[in-house]
Design goal:
By secondary structure, the protein is α+β, with helices and mostly antiparallel strands. Helices cover 41% and strands 13% of the residues. It has helices at 15-31, 97-100, 128-133, 139-153, 181-196, 205-218, 222-225, 231-245, 247-251, 257-274, and strands at 36-43, 53-56, 61-64, 70-74, 80-84, 91-94, 103-108. It has a four-stranded antiparallel beta sheet, with no helix packed on it. The protein has a three-stranded mixed beta sheet with strand order 4-1-7, with no helix packed on it. Strand 5 and strand 6 form a beta hairpin. The longest helix is centred in the C-terminal third of the chain and has 18 residues, at 257-274. The protein starts with 14 loop residues before the first helix and ends in a 5-residue tail after the last helix.
Length: 279
């Protein structure tokens, strides 16, 4: 009897199985070598903080934490992860091997808001009839302010006379029709200076904070300590000067110590009057 070899039937994969196989193959290749830095963000009171920008500057990748403070971002050992949210100090963490293997807890600190001291000039006597007269603006002053406000907003009803000398009384201008070389040179100099100076733009919150820190580090503020001002008092004055002269907007790109010092002294002249600061 001839020998017959028995073959089992072979099952060929269909198209769906082939697609699933290649999907997992591609996913595995793309995921190989990528690490994830994950964790939770909260403030100093333990309150979970959502909408915190989690930025990996080394890889130019960023995510926002969810409402429960959770986040996850691609990172490698040695990367610096920054945490930024309006109203909080910026925080950063350097990724370690241990940080990649677990869930990290990140705490961000809320920025303190300095409230300027308010002094009441009016001292109540307890007599309602007398005290009511000192509250607010008098009716006569209020009516006068209202009338002046309406007058300043109203259009001019009469033509304003031109303040100039009649041509018939003017002397002959011997330079008429000639080029004033000195004026042209001065104009060119102004244009060069204007082009070389950095463009003035309004400072944002973080730029203002960094400028105030640099100001305290590089400008001599010992003069103000002679008036008995503490570090907190000097901080309050610097915020006042920033609000009046917009120091960070004018000088953060061109840190001119002489001009900054002059503006500080001008601001302090008014500040010490309203705060009763004397030597």
């Amino acid at each position: 009897m001839p020998y017959c070899r028995e073959f089992l039937p072979t099952k060929h994969p269909n198209d769906s199985e082939i697609k699933i196989f290649f999907f997992f193959l591609i996913f595995s290749v793309s995921s190989f070598g990528q690490n994830t830095f994950s964790g939770n963000v909260s403030d100093e009171n333990g309150t979970k903080q959502g909408q915190v920008l989690v930025l990996n500057s080394m890889k130019n990748q960023s995510v926002f934490s969810d409402v429960k403070g959770n986040f996850a971002v691609t990172a490698d050992i040695g990367d610096e992860i920054r945490f930024v949210k309006d109203g909080f100090y910026r925080s950063q963490i350097q990724v370690t091997e241990k940080a990649l293997s677990g869930i990290n807890t990140v705490n961000i600190k809320q920025i303190e808001i300095l409230i300027p001291e308010v002094k009441l000039q009016f001292q109540p006597t307890g007599n309602l009839e007398k005290d009511a007269k000192n509250v607010g603006v008098s009716k006569r002053v209020s009516a006068l302010n209202s009338s002046m406000d309406e007058y300043m907003k109203s259009p001019l009803t009469e033509a304003m006379p031109e303040n100039s000398t009649p041509k018939s009384f003017k002397t002959h201008d011997f330079t008429e029709g000639q080029v004033n070389l000195i004026a042209v040179a001065g104009l060119i100099g102004k244009l060069i200076n204007k082009a070389s100076k950095p463009k003035i733009t309004k400072a944002n919150y973080y730029e203002t904070r960094d400028f105030i820190s640099r100001l305290k580090a590089e400008i001599d503020l010992n003069h103000f300590k002679k008036f008995g001002m503490s570090e907190e008092g000097i901080d309050r004055f610097l915020l006042y000067a920033e609000d009046i002269f917009m120091l960070s907007t004018k000088y953060r790109k061109d840190f001119d110590k002489v001009k900054i010092s002059n503006d500080l002294m001008s601001a302090f002249g008014e500040y010490k009057k309203t705060n009763n600061l004397e030597l």
